[in-house]
Amino acid sequence: MADLSFIEDSVAFPEKEEDEEEEEEGVEWGYEEGVEWGLVFPDANGEYQSPINLNSREARYDPSLLDVRLSPNYVVCRDCEVTNDGHTIQVILKSKSVLLGGPLPQGHEFELYEVRFHWGRENQRGSEHTVNFKAFPMELHLIHWNSTLFSSIDEAVGKPHGIAIIALFVQGKSKTIPCFNPNTLLPDPLLRDYWVYEGSLTIPPCSEGVTWILFRYPLTISQLQIEEFRRLRTHVKGAELVEGCDGILGDNFRPTQPLSDRVIRAAFQ
């Protein structure tokens, strides 16, 4: 597959069972201005939240990150579930792909669970993290869970060394990417400089214990593909919109959070 052809209005909202709907009542959240996630999700008030602004001059070079090479052992996924949950596009992978090495605990495998996208309505914004206060049009997250310590991603969330996320900044030019081969989402091996810090999920419940690995060089896709994301809707066709909502899915990024006393490490000089 040579493009992101799954990004269409036909990406379905999965039907929820009645019990699931009841369980989700009272925990609605969104990206609207003034919405305070911490009022509903206590973890969002934590000291080590994500995303953050990466000040490249203050990042500390850590040669130990190169002792064991960061190794994404990804396989082509031929059985994926693609959903629009009203907040983002999720690609849930059924084939087993793992991440090892780098800043991760030695000998631990982190299994790739899903890919998530965050984007802006304009090219000047969209990424969750910023670099020297510069935002990119989009940010892509490859979310992994520690399958050495835990039996499921649900068990791993919120635990030390439970979750690892590779983040890729995305900019629009002329290239297309085959989305369902996770290897093609990564930069060339010679361009895999990265930063590392400890943070949280960027969506509720915003649980901490997440190791963030942010590649320095952005992924390039076509501007047309970015525009396809901006055509997506937050609702099923024909549904009644909430007052003040135009129904366009975009600007689905959390503002940067205080760095506090955390240290950003760099695997390059």
UniProtKB/TrEMBL annotation:
<dbReference type="InterPro" id="IPR018338">
    <property type="entry name" value="Carbonic_anhydrase_a-class_CS"/>
</dbReference>
<feature type="region of interest" description="Disordered">
    <location>
        <begin position="1"/>
        <end position="28"/>
    </location>
</feature>
<dbReference type="GO" id="GO:0008270">
    <property type="term" value="F:zinc ion binding"/>
</dbReference>
<feature type="domain" description="Alpha-carbonic anhydrase">
    <location>
        <begin position="27"/>
        <end position="268"/>
    </location>
</feature>
<dbReference type="GO" id="GO:0004089">
    <property type="term" value="F:carbonate dehydratase activity"/>
</dbReference>
<protein>
    <recommendedName>
        <fullName>Carbonic anhydrase</fullName>
        <ecNumber>4.2.1.1</ecNumber>
    </recommendedName>
</protein>
<dbReference type="Pfam" id="PF00194">
    <property type="entry name" value="Carb_anhydrase"/>
</dbReference>
<dbReference type="InterPro" id="IPR001148">
    <property type="entry name" value="CA_dom"/>
</dbReference>
<keyword id="KW-0479">Metal-binding</keyword>
<keyword id="KW-0456">Lyase</keyword>
<dbReference type="InterPro" id="IPR036398">
    <property type="entry name" value="CA_dom_sf"/>
</dbReference>
<keyword id="KW-0862">Zinc</keyword>
<comment type="similarity">
    <text>Belongs to the alpha-carbonic anhydrase family.</text>
</comment>
<dbReference type="InterPro" id="IPR023561">
    <property type="entry name" value="Carbonic_anhydrase_a-class"/>
</dbReference>
<feature type="compositionally biased region" description="Acidic residues">
    <location>
        <begin position="16"/>
        <end position="28"/>
    </location>
</feature>
<comment type="function">
    <text>Reversible hydration of carbon dioxide.</text>
</comment>
